[in-house]
Design goal:
Elements (H helix, E strand, L loop, with lengths): L5 E3 L12 E5 L6 E5 L9 E5 L6 E3 L3 E2 L11 E3 L1 E9 L8 E9 L5 E7 L1 H15 L7 E11 L7 E11 L2 H13 L13 E5 L6 H16 L1
Parallel strand pairs: 4-10
Antiparallel strand pairs: 1-3, 2-3, 4-5, 5-6, 7-11, 8-9, 8-13, 9-10, 11-12
């Protein structure tokens, strides 16, 4: 069985490609394959993180992102392809928090995700307001995130970082391609799906796999009955 991002052409006939697809010849078999430009293991996007204690961006909590000179990134840019803002208790925490989960395609053409919480989400809302009034969505723009150090009013010796957001309009051709990709693929992160999430804002391109699972379970139960 071939992966969902790689399909063979039938009888050597040329196929109509989607905007996010390309054709290549398998060196071993000589078979012409249609494959996605983007890598995606469904439900398990590449995991980027923002560390609110250090102000660092990292990959899987391990590899700190740096520039070509090895310096820690002072900003991180991406074009969202799907997103949701919700309240939930995640990652073993006991307090219900406000979260933003944003999906994008990174510089290595991997479908990825990054999350922000609490004060940083309020900053995201602040950035999104003019976007929505311009009749656009978060998936129409390129977002840049910059860490900003803040201090506790009660105890000035305590500090942490929040995310500040800015944006610029993304190229229309890129927006169309990514939109077509999300129409054909189910974009979500299974690790963060819970039945207790209360959604505040959710993009059309986000796939709520939990709802689909619930529907399937209900239908299966009905058929069994």
């Amino acid at each position: 069985m071939k992966a969902n991002n790689e399909l063979s052409t039938q009888n050597g006939e040329e196929q109509n490609l989607r905007s996010y697809q390309l054709m290549r010849v398998d060196e071993e078999s000589g078979e012409t394959l249609i494959m996605d430009k983007y890598l995606y293991f469904e439900g398990r996007p590449r995991e980027y993180r923002f560390n609110g204690q250090s102000g660092q961006f990292n990959l899987y909590g391990e590899r700190i992102l740096t520039d070509e000179k090895g310096r820690m990134l002072t900003s991180f840019s991406f074009q969202p392809i799907a997103y949701r803002i919700f309240e939930d208790t995640l990652f073993g925490r006991t307090v219900r928090e406000l979260w933003a989960e944003i999906f994008f395609v990174d510089d290595e053409d991997c479908v990825s995700s990054i999350m922000f919480n609490n004060t940083s989400v309020n900053e995201l809302y602040r950035m999104m307001e003019p976007i929505l009034y311009e009749r656009q969505t978060l998936c129409d723009v390129m977002v840049t995130v910059r860490p900003e150090k803040v201090f506790s009013k009660a105890d000035p010796t305590k500090s942490w970082y929040i995310a500040r957001f800015s944006y610029e309009t993304a190229p229309a051709s890129r927006v169309r391609e990514l939109r077509e990709y999300t129409r054909d693929h189910r974009v979500y992160r299974s690790e963060t799906l819970t039945s207790g999430a209360q959604h505040k804002l959710i993009s059309r391109s986000y796939y709520n796999a939990l709802e689909s699972l619930d529907d399937y379970s209900l239908n299966s139960s009905a058929e069994a009955a």
